[in-house]
Specification:
CATH architecture of the largest domain: Alpha-Beta Barrel
Structural class: alpha/beta
Strand content: 5-15%
Distance between the termini: 26 Å
Number of strands: 11
CATH topology of the largest domain: TIM Barrel
Radius of gyration: 20 Å
Shape: globular
Number of domains: 2
Largest sheet: 9 strands, parallel
CATH superfamily of the largest domain: Aldolase class I
Length: about 350
Amino acid sequence: MIKIGNIQLPDFPLLLAPMEDVSDPPFRAVCKDNGADLMFSEFISSEGLIRDAMKSKMKLDFSEEERPFGIQIFGGDEEAMALSAKICEAVNPDLVDINFGCPVKKVVSKGAGAGVLRDVDLMVKLTEAVVRSTSLPVTIKTRLGWDDNSKNIEEVAERLQDVGIKAISIHGRTRAQLYKGEADWTLIAKVKENSRIQIPVFGNGDIDSPEKALEYKNRYGVDGIMIGRAAIGYPWIFNEIKHFFKTGEHLPAPTIQQRIEVIRKHLYRSIEWKNPIVGINEMRRHYANYLKGMPNIKEYRNKLVTLRLVEEIDEVLNEIINNYAGYEFERTVIELPNYHEKCSA
């Protein structure tokens, strides 16, 4: 059993990474259905929360079925971070997470996200301000360091544990790498092996199959794995990993009926969460990922991204079910989507 404060998680939990413009309540709902053990909001600007910005406030939304659930905040000002943590606490999540890993220029240039990796003293002050302002467990999502010359994650983990964080999730790249090259988990393993570190250490980066999840679990000794891009369009990854851990065998690839069922739930939740126009428009970015690998699917995909009525979308989804009835999907390694313009630490 893994504990984050008073939160109890399975022995080796699988976490859904907070991803900007992806990890909204509709997406999280289908990931929860398919085995995600701990989920987070999209990252929320501390300044935006204080200004009462509508977009920031919407990101506080979550449902009871999503628990355990964390709200992730970012910023570079101690007072703003402390106050935003209090605002988060008012909606009663299970924990508050701080983003010290987002590599996107507009965040970094404001001295937030991965920008704080250049100033560990500031990182400690920001974290301490949040820990002092809330009774909720505080966790961290970060990277190995700013660049190859400043991989300071071992120091960061120790110092942030000392001011009260209850868990740390580490993406195995520097800020300079963005999402290029391979994630390096060797430093994540060093943090876990450090006798001073008593909090859970979760690894993140490039997990795209049950085999790799098991290999990294055994090789690097982390307490759990955080999965981001591999879940986009493929929420089944969580249960597939769990099944492989238990049995050494693969679950069958999701059928066309299962795929369309998840698309529908995602679509209906999007409409319910926002409104029909926005919900339908925002769902358009997901169809290609859900239908990836299906032969001759382009015609249907093009229809789905142009239709404006849910009834018409339902008709196309029914057509897909009928035309692909009996089609047997092959298990293939998930192709991780490009995510350079978004933000997941």
